[in-house]
Amino acid sequence: METEIEAKFPNIDADALRSVLKEKKAKIEHPEVLMRRKNFDYPDHRLKQFNGWVRVRDESNKVTLSY
Q1: Using one digit for the tens of pLDDT, what is the confidence trace for 41-55?
Q2: Domain count, the chain
């Protein structure tokens, strides 16, 4: 299984960040897409007790299931 690293940056000025990256000659590896996700657990939250979860994510071009 591939390792996934996910970073979230709340409250940023996306246009300003894009300008800085463009100045630095950064290249887009993956275009921005809307991803929808839903996390699942048992009613008694037994997965959360062990930092576990089940997630279904719609990545626009594919749907993934993670646990």
Answers
A1: 999 999 999 889 899
A2: 1
| pTM beyond cutoff 0.70 | no
Q: Is residue 12 part of a domain?
A: no
What SS3 state is found at 57?
Answer: strand
- 50 secondary structure, DSSP code: G
The answer to whether residues 59 and 33 touch, using CB atoms and an 8 Å cutoff, is yes
Would residue 47 count as lying in a domain? yes
Which candidate, 23, 51, 25, 26, places its Cα nearest to that of 39? 51
Q: What is the pLDDT of residues 2-38, one digit of tens each?
A: 777 778 888 999 899 999 999 999 998 888 888 899 9
